[in-house]
Predict the 3D structure of the following.
Amino acid sequence: MDTETAGKVIKCKAAVAWEAKKPLSIEIVEVAPPKAHEVRIKITATGVCGTDAYGLSGADPRFKYPIIFGHEGAGIVESVGEGVTVVKPGDKVIPLYVSQCHECENCLNPNTNICTKIRATQQQGLMPDMTSRFTCKGKQVFHFLGCSTFAEYTVCADISVAKIDDNAPLDKVCLIGCAIPTGYGAAINTAEVKPGSTCAVFGLGGVGLSAVMGCKAAGASQIFGIDINKEKFNKAKELGATACLHPQDYDKPISEVLIELTNGGVHNAIECTGNTDVMNSAVQCCRPGWGKAVIIGLAYPGKTLSVIPYKILLGCTITGSMFGGWKSADSVPKLVSDYMMRKLKVDEFISCTLPISKVNEAFDMMHKGNSVRTVLIF
């Protein structure tokens, strides 16, 4: 434990969102010491994800302001609260926006990875005791998804932290906090892509490209990458896509194009955009009998999915995937090890690395489709 800071309030930089739809502001915030079963982490690197942009949009009333976004980070444990045994000061860790307590009914069930122990308070932007560890200019600042990695120091519940390889480069493996496990696992765990199968991945951002990588790793014979930005196609092919399609190049729905190209429909469709029209396309392009559509994208509140019941009657499965179906605390260290052994690609997803002061520039690049992932460093 760092004896200079342990048990004390730490002042540090953070990108604070004071209100929705406004640029983030670099501020000096106060970060309180961890309480029982909490961990304070010095964040060294964090990715910028579409879910952060979703939170900043103001569309979801669950997110309260001011708030510190970020959930795709990596850092070093600075201090721990009473009762923490899973990590110690000095450990390299990745915060987990999907916790794993190993005790609740969901954690004990192999069919789901959605831990319920702290989910209610996490969704309120608070720690399990219903308080925040952040203050700025005398105001309470809310947490985001139990992580808040846009702060140089953050506090997480101990069930929301994974200890990783001491040799792992934090400015790379931070992406294993969200994008890469989400897409990769959606193909491997949720879609259960089989060797020789045909797949379609809708949306070729960081998550979609990870899904492409997962489909290839599972042995798919055809992998179609679909996006409205053709600049993403080369990267998709580098990661395993056998063909890339731009929906506006055709005079018919992209689902019909895929059905024709595969002589009946794909075995697996993975949607990574959050657009409900695209979700419908993913469902419609699935092969009757055993096609499976996996929804990853986060749709805005009030949006609904319209599905023809006959499609389901014929055997099409529609399911969702959160964090790729991985049991987080158990799986993240293994995924980092896979990266260290060059079994999992990560570096290929990083378009550029910027200081935290450039956080708004990183959001702009993401919205314009100019980057797969931007990593921010402190």
Notes: The mean pLDDT is 96. The longest strand covers residues 38-47. Residues 283 and 293 are 5 Å apart (CA to CA).
